[in-house]
Amino acid sequence: MESIDLLVLRTAHDWLQAGHRVLLATVARTWGSSPRPVGSMMALRNDGRVVGSVSGGCIEDDLIHRYTTAYGGPGLPEGTPEVIRYGISADDAHRFGLPCGGTLELILEFNPAVEPLRQLLARLDAGQLVRRHLALASGAASLEHTTTPAQFSFDGQRMVNTLGPGYRMLLIGAGALAEYLATMALFNGFKVAVCDPRPEHMATWSVAGVEHLKGMPDDMVRAYSADLRTCIIAVSHDPKLDDLALLEALHSPAFYIGAIGSRRNSQLRRERLIEHFGESEQSLERLHGPIGIYIGSKTPAEIAVSVMAEVLAAKNAVALPGAVNVSQAKGEHEHQPL
């Protein structure tokens, strides 16, 4: 499954290519609470079909009524981009389902040019990080190659949105936990690859849409060219596979690196990496283990929910409180009186 940004852009391009009129809406600014973050996009076709989201649904409905023929409206106009704001008054906030005090500002692009969208998609499909600049006065969009992720920005005249290839997950080990993690990652828009040199484990893999990497995990981590949108998770339970893969991962810019294991096994892993491989407490600060957040999980499916939640928190730059840390939470529960 593609990331939602890629899905919106690809759908908008395909609709335009097929001769439809299309509105591309982007969340430009928010004040107070908002359902979707800045940079979120949706594509709206002239007949009312929608892909993506800029709110919880009410604003999408308003845009359909205003700009399409779905309910007998005039249809999408031509012209330069417009800025529209929702939720200025309490009545508007209530009408459009915005949280208390929330205000949302959208940039509306009417029938964006097909060729720049095609070029953008080609770069994203090639794994590039791209900044899309939009000048509101003219509606002209330009693309800039970059190697540095940047926050979405809008100064009232120019929008700059940094777009990249979809998030990726590399799993070391092909057991049941890996299958549940792969399933959750796929429906969260990640591209997933799995590496396990043990043929008896790979032979039973059942999740479709996952790339199978052949070779030793440390070699595959190196070849995978992890970037800032990559997470690497070792779940083989075999130190010969996990440790070497983690060593390579720790020297990459991956946003999340983790390994399955109990508190004792995680501590033993850290000691091995320090004693035998020259790592230090500082270099291991990026290594998550035990992985996941504490939800009392026992089954592979429950553990996968726990791990995926921690991965998404890291992806979204959310600092989790110590109360959900597995080591801390388990320690506290062990010392509770019966």
TrEMBL record:
Residues 169-311 form the XdhC Rossmann domain. Gene3D superfamilies: NAD(P)-binding Rossmann-like Domain. It holds the Pfam family XdhC_CoxI. InterPro entries: MoCofactor_Util/Proc, NAD(P)-bd_dom_sf, XdhC_CoxI, XdhC_Rossmann_dom. Residues 15-70 form the XdhC- CoxI domain. It comes from the Bacteria. This is XdhC family protein. SUPFAM superfamilies: NAD(P)-binding Rossmann-fold domains (SSF51735). It comes from Pseudomonas xantholysinigenes.
